[in-house]
Amino acid sequence: ARREGERLTAHNLTKRFQGVTAVDGVTLAVPPGRITALTGPNGAGKSTLFDCLSGAQRADSGQVLLGGKDLTRLPEHARARLGLARTFQQIAVFPGLTVADNLRVGAEQSAGRTARESAADADRLLDLLGLSDLRDQAAAELPTGTLRLVELGRALAAQPAVLLLDEPGAGLDRRETALLVELLRSLADGGLALLLVEHDRELVDELASGVHVMRTGRTEFHARLEHRGGAGHQGGHPDGAGHPG
Ligand code: ADP
Ligand code: MG
């Protein structure tokens, strides 16, 4: 079953590289049923923050929580099993595998499902993403926009509670962008918690109920008061605590 309805939170996360504090005491919440955006210039620390949330990198200090569970010390695959999925700025798919097999690999990251269930889920997702006709194509043969959708499908196949997307709109054509917008909306409506790194201002305005603007490692939160998702009741507090999604 889907593990929806859980909030991902970061408390005072810090990550330093030699001489650079890439993430500098970030506190934020990614509530279920909403799309939260993360914007900011190149080098602001967005991808590093994603890495610290997903477990691709270990933060130097601070905490990452999913619901009440402390993920801070867990490796990436363990966080994935608990319901955290992500995509990458540099698209990460298995180039030698077909589109369908890429999704099946993603489905295997979800605990407690049979091969048959995983295959059925992969079929449903292929349909949702408009990829059914490409199911037997090797990923290596596909253009960037299509690969982004394959990567998104791989992440969704794991049935996450929280989905972190690093520039999902990059390289998509108009038709693919429209499909992405509809899909992300319906995922949020279904209870998924989404965090989106995105530079496309229109996409952010259209989708996000709140925006974290990141600059040299620090974030500032802007609630979007008029948003349909009910963000109007969200105060300016950076972690949005006490506001159920
Ligand atoms: P963004 O995704 O917002 O463009 P990044 O998270 O990629 O920003 O980078 C934030 C800062 O951390 C930059 O100054 C970048 O040069 C530095 N940085 C990122 N990854 C590493 C790394 N592996 N080693 C050293 N410095 C890094
Ligand atoms: Mg980046």
From TrEMBL:
Superkingdom of the source species: Bacteria
Biased composition regions of type Gly residues, renumbered to the chain: 231-243
Stretches assigned to the ABC transporter domain: 8-241
Region (Disordered): 228-245
Subcellular location: Cell membrane
Protein name: ATP-binding cassette domain-containing protein
Organism, scientific name: Streptacidiphilus fuscans
Residues of the whole record sequence present: 673 to 917 of 924
